[in-house]
Amino acid sequence: MSLDGTYDEGNIFAKILRGEMPSAKVFEDDHVFAFMDVFPQSKGHTLVIPKHSRARNLLEEEPQVLSHLILGVQRVARAVRAALQPDGIVITQFNGAPAGQTVYHLHIHIIPRWEGVPMGRHASGGMADPKELAALAEQIAAKIS
Ligand code: 5GP
């Protein structure tokens, strides 16, 4: 899908938000929802999405929603750091299939990195063990402040 198109209510993140699909939840407030990526590029790879949005990508999003989203990302990234003590954190976001986007509900990736540990491939690695994801989500959630 290119940058043009219409929001699909059946996308996987919309289903997670509606509770139709499970997720390893890390954090939720009135504006954002954070959960573990099931094809993680590193241990602790977390996604943050706006809850009240029909934007497929960053270019379509309302300024007010973006403000809440980036503040949510900072809050969750700080918790990831506190929980997992990474050496660095990649914060990234893709717009359109040619850029690497695979799910068309705006989301931001938080990917912790450790010296000497290569980052996994985007959206194409193995599926993580749900129990491990739940444990990581709990560890990160405990550090949300
Ligand atoms: P994008 O490629 O659109 O930037 O990122 C989509 C992300 O969603 C990918 O990193 C992919 O691993 C992740 N993902 C795809 N399907 C699911 C799912 O059903 N649950 C969760 N938690 N993550 C998913």
UniProtKB/TrEMBL annotation:
A motif (Histidine triad motif) lies at residues 105-109. It is an enzyme of class 2 (transferase). PROSITE patterns: HIT_2. CDD domains: HINT_subgroup (cd01277). GO terms for molecular function: methyltransferase activity. PANTHER family: ADENOSINE 5'-MONOPHOSPHORAMIDASE HNT1, HIT FAMILY PROTEIN 1. This is HIT family protein.
